[in-house]
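Homework-ish question, so no full write-ups if that breaks the rules, but can someone show me the predicted structure for this set?
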Amino acid sequence: MQTKNKYKPVVHFTPPANWMNDPNGMVYVNGRYHLFYQYYPAAPNWGPMHWGHAVSEDLLHWEHLPVALYPDELGCIFSGSCVLDRANVSGLGSIENPPLIAVYTNHRISDHLEQQSIAYSLDYEHFEKYYGNPVIPNKGKPDFRDPKVFFNPVKNCCSLVLAAGSRVEFYSSENLKDWKKTGDFEAGIHGLGGICECPDCFPLMTEEGEKWILIISMILPPEQAGKDKDCFHRMSHITQYYVGTFDGNTFHDTECSALPLLPDYGTDNYAAVTFQNLEEKVMLGWADNWDYAAQTPTDADGFRGQMTLARQMKLVKTAQGYRLAFSFPGLDSLKASAFPLFPGDNRLHTQTFGLKTTVNGPGKITFRNSTGESVEIEVTEEEIIVDRRHGGQTGFQKDYDSDCYGINRAPRLCQNTSIMEIVFDRCILEVLADDGMTPFTVSVFPVHPYEKICVTGEISADFYQIQ
Ligand code: FRU
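A: Not a homework solution, just the prediction itself:
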């Protein structure tokens, strides 16, 4: 049976209607997770950006709030972050009522000038723009955007990292209003080079002490992008990370990994950043890709774009070096009617479900319907492969079902038994393979609901509905 909104996910965040891209300003305050996002409320296409706003108590059910930031005389509102100013160093609130400060990019449409501005809120819903904007002016550097604020433990103040062309720049401030540049980091020395976007920088504890992670979303140079089937160059936009140290001024890559490190091997996880003011590190990304985001099918509601599920992360030491490993926080509370699947075909009655699988060796999981649409998740000795080429509608964009865009692959990190978590939610498939170290986020638009799950090989799977 087809519903009116057959693609609107149930537990993945989508805007009330119309266009959405990056998650912005994610912060945990007074028991609620706040999610702001790049939003064009007037049409299902990118337009002058606003910050949409939603809140949640469990990261799975979201309540929409009014638009938080509207374009102004300095430009539209591009990506950025929020920080709860507990000590009221900004003087924009009080200790009793700490201000929530949004630090964002003003993008002027006429000449693309990008400068950093702030706004503050005392009720964490309505924002006042700061009269002294921009707080980080720009005389004309191209691609100067997406500030992410974080606590600087060396200087005991706030720092931010922003994208500045092929590098990211670090700034620090005592009062969140006056910012001084402290250092920068060139993305392409190790890892992928190109134009940086939406950086994030934060510490994670390991058995060997604290390490810092630098995440950067990248626009690859056109001569590289979309040409090669390798997991790094098959799309024009991809997110990478580095493992290293932060000395109070800048980030240093200490892993110097020969191959770029990816927080996701699927086509659809971009601009992913973490929540502020939360003990554990939880990341969320835009589950889409600029290569086709403006062409994907819209539903009866006309929404375009969804977020990944929130992913909690840890840093794990492997034979190949440090790797981020992810899990879905809170999902257990929604699991209903769990049962083991039989080897071979199993009937499927819902388009929002999860699978907890144990991988003992090569095998395959396929979702399919009687019209021949199918998605395959294959585990071999060497690779994990998620193939959505025949998953459903593909004609909206010329490359969507090509080998390059349609086959997602990643090298194996586990040789022995490993856990693979899978969530499917109407138009979005997430796979956390090899104990969470090899994630995939992949969009897929079945014309007809999938009716069967087929499990073959050395994989056992528990199925659960998500409610
Ligand atoms: C990344 C990005 C950001 C920018 C925003 C504009 O997807 O290009 O760099 O701030 O989207 O919507």
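Now go work out the reasoning yourself. Hint: The chain has two domains: 18-327, 334-466.
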